[in-house]
Amino acid sequence: MLYIQELTMTRTECHAWFNVAIYMTGLIGLAVGWPMFHWAAFWSLAVWGLMPFGLLFYIPWWGPPGPLFDERDREIVRRALQITTHVFWWAAAGGCWLPFLIYGIQGHVPACAVSFYSLGVGLLWILLFSMRIIVLSRRDRPVAA
Amino acid sequence: LTNEIRRLRFENGEMTQESLAQSVGVTRQTIIALEANRYVPSLLLALRIAEAFDCRVEEVFKMRALQRKEKLEG
User: Which 8-state DSSP code applies to residue B27?
Assistant: First the structure.
């Protein structure tokens, strides 16, 4: 069977790079398409829908034999989760207060804003989590076990 | 924490990082990180590595201060 014999990155890091690449492709597409297509350029964000396919990195027969996820990966993911969870909660808490600041205490938040905000916070979480994994995988100091 | 993994690999028939990784059940990137002193392994992994080289854990992993003291005494 044809498979990649050697990986220069762990599968976790490959997945993180995949997420960042997808994220950036959407944003670059929006920036490039805006002068020509204006609001229609937002369709470039549809590539973010490819993110769930990152799970394909964990198919066992793809890549060299051996564990898909080892103790170092587990440690990196644990540390990445720490910071992203904090940022996520700050963003979520900010989201609760923002409508009052924008619309006033008597104001009404458009229903669509809630879903867009939830999606935005979720995407921010994925981006931060992926970037933190990349940094931790490459940083030049010991990672405590 | 420093280690002698690279030296022990070459002394054990020039064992590759990949084959050591497979024998102890981790990815090759973990062995790379260990050799570069960029990762402190769990006790279980340290024991497995020592077992793969058929030696004691203290012969594979050393505290940096202890190693310096040994060099001065030696």
Answer: -
Q: Which DSSP string corresponds to B28-71?
A: HHHHHHHHTT-BPPPHHHHHHHHHHTTS-HHHHEE-HHHHHHHH
Chain A touched by B47 (CB under 8 Å) = no
Looking at residue A38, its pLDDT comes to 92
A143–B26 C-beta distance less than 8 A? no
Taking the CA of residue A75 and the nearest CA in chain B, the distance in Å comes to 10
Picking from A14-18, A107-111, B30-34, B51-55, which range would have the lowest pLDDT averaged per residue?
Answer: A107-111
Q: ipTM of this predicted complex?
A: 0.82
Q: Between B9 and A108, where is the model more confident? A: B9
Instruction: Please tell me the pTM assigned to this model.
Output: 0.80
For B66, phi then psi, to 5°, come to -65, -40
For residue B39, give the chain A residue with the closest CA. Answer: A142
C-alpha torsion angle, residues A59, A65, A70, A73 (rounded to 10): -60
Compute the distance between CA of residue A117 and CA of residue A120 in angstroms, rounded to an integer: 5
pLDDT, tens digit, for every residue of A44-66? 999 999 999 999 999 888 777 78
Alpha-carbon distance of B21 to A109, in angstroms, equals 55
